[in-house]
Amino acid sequence: MTTSTRVTKASSVAPSRTPAALPAKTALLIASGDVRSSANVCCWPTQKRLEREAIAAFADLGWTLRRAHPERSPNGEPHGFIASQRQGRDVFAGIPKDAPLVVVESVWQYSQHVLIGLQHHRGPILILANWSGQWPGLVGALNLRGSLTKAGVRHSMLWAEDLADPLVRKRLREWVTKGRIRYDQSHVRGFDPRDVGTTARGLGSRLAAELKARPAIMGVFDEGCMGMFNAIVPDHLLHATGVFKERLSQSALFHAMGLVSSKDAADVHRWLTKKGMRFKTGRRDATDLTSRQILEQCRMYIAAARIAERQGCDAIGIQYQLGLADLVAASDLAEGLLNCSDRPPVKVVEGAAKGKVIRPGKPITHFNEVDECAGLDGIITERVWSALDMPSDNTLHDLRWGDVDRSGTTDEFVWVFEISGAVPPSHLEGGYRGAVSERQPPMYFVRGGGTIKGVSRAGDIVWSRIYVADDALHMDIGRATAIALPADETQRRWNLTTSQWPIMHAVLQGVSRDQMMARHQSNHIQVVYASSARAADEALEVKASMAHAMGIRVWRCGV
């Protein structure tokens, strides 16, 4: 029988014959990859190793795990990832609809590559991810999970540092025998507004009513970055909350950047330098952060702020890794500055308000990778924190990885939250003086661009995630503490992830590692600081109350 479809460069038509049924105790393996060839080639050795381990683990259980597509791309590149939606369509044409499927992930991946087939698959689906900071399969897996949840596709997920671990093997046996894996989710309970104080409930309800009376506008610079189906909120769900999209084009942002004067861009760079921010520069544009790249990022910051003001946007989202990455330097610096209440002044250059500084002392909420779930969360956060007279600077992070603390500072499991774009300097220890801009890895950003690197300051935070399930909006919300770790432990974690990016050492309250992985519906997590533990508890209740009053189903996690 044929279990794979060899796709050629010219192929665009699926095989006409119906795939043969699989033998008993046989599952098919697929691998969703990046859209960028350089990333797929780099990550392929790690993927092959994980696949070998998965095949051996299935064999120990008496099962055969067989690859459903070749170990070489249709274009002849030395990797076996599905690297486009077109390729995914052809691969799934050769897969029986009821076959047990295992999506093995050890890399960032674009969910659209395989969603085209998984959406209508009838057999059991397992997302199997490694546990690694350097090779973040769990990030790709969490994004795919959120996409499948939104699509209403039943699936299970398994993550492992070692597939030979007895607990991991027990869970894998559960999947091959029952077609699903169940996890402990006792840390989750539905939000009941009667459980919070009348003050918090009243403020949340009032803020929700204000939002519906005067809707917010979410500026979206093209949807669907990195195939994140889970990050697109359907209009009918968004409108019901009191938020509407202003659909913007990346070409408009690119054009607006060209209208920013050299003086204005240089003034932003000079402002940052005076604040104490450092730029790690070099002379080689291909590998170093250069003045050209920095000034392009400053132009993007100014252009984005002006577009947001002109369109009346309460929040905006830039594509980050698609489109503009082929034209200009990465958006990291611009995104982080937009999210900071203390940022370089930008003036209006047209109309009656010409010369006016745009929203002085306030952030212009930005959601990385045009993740509209994060954008909606950011709009809610900005209103709640402002009402409570606390800085509303907030950001998303990747739920990148986590490990026990090797320094002896804490016995708690410490998560690594990392995202290069959107983190405001106000979140970092030392603020701007604790920030350094380093060039994005050339593998992902040929045109370069600097990040805002630093260590997130210790403090009390509220975390949350909005997602779509059963054609409804949901919010998971909880408490966490950002802690300080010694420099050596921080560097160890940076070395095992992406050292150019800002890092947060996060300890979740009342939620274990496996509970978080069993529940979370995205690779992203939203975080915002509060002035104290008590203030964080109060803000959480107000935020949950506001979201509930907006029609979002709220779930308290660990609190």
Could you name the CATH topology of the largest domain? Answer: L-fucose Isomerase, Chain A, domain 3
Question: Sheet with the most strands?
Answer: 6 strands, antiparallel, barrel
Q: What oligomeric state is this?
A: single chain
CATH class of the largest domain, named Alpha Beta
Strands, total number: 19
> Beta-sheet strand percentage?
15-25%
Structural class: alpha/beta
What does this protein look like?
The protein is of the alpha/beta class and 559 residues long. It has helices spanning 37-60, 85-92, 112-118, 137-151, 166-178, 198-213, 235-241, 250-258, 262-275, 291-311, 332-338, 372-387, 487-495, 513-519, 533-549; strands at 26-30, 64-67, 101-105, 125-130, 156-160, 188-190, 216-221, 243-248, 278-279, 315-317, 365-366, 394-404, 413-418, 436-437, 459-469, 472-482, 503-508, 524-530, 553-557. Strands 12-13-17-16-15-18 form a six-stranded antiparallel β-barrel, surrounded by four helices. Strands 2-1-3-4-5 form a five-stranded parallel sheet. The protein has a four-stranded parallel sheet with strand order 8-7-10-11, sandwiched between helices. Strand 7, helix 7 (235-241) and strand 8 (243-248) form a beta-alpha-beta unit. The chain starts with 25 loop residues before the first strand and ends with a strand.
